[in-house]
Amino acid sequence: MEIVSLFLPFCFFLSCFLIFNTARFQRRSSQAATLPPGPPRLPIIGNIHQVGEHPHRSFADLSKTYGPIMSLKLGSLNTVIVTSPEAAREVLRTHDQILSARNSPNSIRSINHHKVSVAWMDPSSTRWRLLRKLSATHLFSPQRIESTKALRMKKVQELMSFMDESSEREEAVDISRASFITTLNIISNILFSVDLGSYGSKNSNGFQDSVIGAMEAAGSPDLANFFPFLGFLDLQGNRKKMKLCTERLFKVFRGFIDAKTAEKSLRDNPKDVSYRDFVDALLDLTLGDEAELNINDIEHLLLDMFIAGTDTSSSTLEWAMAELLNNPKTMAKAQAEIERMVGQNGVVQEPDITELTYLQAVVKETLRLHPPVPLLLPRKAETDVEVFGFLVPKDTQVLVDVWAIGRDPNVWENPNVFEPERFLGKEIDVKGRDYELTPFGAGRRICPGLPLATKIVSLMLASLLHSFDWKLPNGAVSDMDETFGVTLHKTNPLHAAPIKKRAIN
Prior knowledge:
Keywords: Heme, Iron, Metal-binding, Monooxygenase, Oxidoreductase. With about 500 residues, the protein is α+β, with helices and mostly antiparallel strands.
């Protein structure tokens, strides 16, 4: 395995960890009986060799032997993985406060993002509470989401027009790219009041590549995550990739921030609410002697918003379309429901989504099989804590494998089959209360953008299914190969041809 081979030049240096780990084991021998079970460990590397390129799958396989809560040693990092709803409930709810700290990857630390990011910062800090409050108030409150409804409709209609043009040319469409541009423009308009993407050019690819590159740098295997003293060597190049991608993104952000700052200085009333978007609200907090934010804070908060919002939504839409194309009867059932609700010549509206119970089931089933962040973001125990009857020592990394939970045969019947019907007539939702389905997490670390993300994905999917029939090039079957990162991507992007069913308004 590639990771193991990288240890060979460092055996002399790493051997000290064997002595160190042995000493720690001896000190904790009295606790060993209460630690979660786990596979035997090799000297120095522990269980790294058992992780592989798809950790979410490896952990699911190991849990079949060692149970729903297990201990692994990943280099010098003690790790506990939970793979059942009951254990997830204890991590995400019962002991949420103790387990809300983060272990940040080496690549994240390379740009000091862990110090200013709402995703990685200590949730007990005043700054975290401020940023979370700002996000909730100015982006994700019910009132704010309602006020941007017309914007979402406009951008989805632009997506339909692009699909219509592709249909006229009988061209297959890159579903991931098209949905990414739509989501990107929705978010960039909420934040900056401008479009950042264009369907007719490749200009948006640079931004998309930078977002995805940053996600990959954060989620790719990295020896420095297991052996922090190797961080400066950047053996996998994740630090370099993260810096390169974020520099490109920050350059875009700075351009809009500078333009808005100049614009505000020319207004008679700089706080005129008719001009205000999210960045306007943030810039107000940088003014005065007791400013609550600075430009660096704003740039990193915007980085969180784009990374968390664009890539995850577009990948979910792509997985949903891939599953439907492989299950034409399910697609036809979803299309029939939409047509009954909207009519042959109507346009899907956001309020329709709540009445489309089968479409909602399709989205839930997609999130069950293909959670955007399969291991959520890592948590860390701030003190020793008992979880599911086992000791989780202080500073242990805790991972919730929502991918494994979503495919657990003890929880789901026919777990590997795409079957939206399993959700009909049931109250199971993705809002962090049903621990068999928590793709957005739960507790204080739940994704704050959940309400907006589900609206965007559902509206795009319903509109695509209502306006077009779909086929794969050459009658192929869509492969479901996946590439692991922070976000779970299709390895081979989905290309599908839209076939127009009705006029696009």
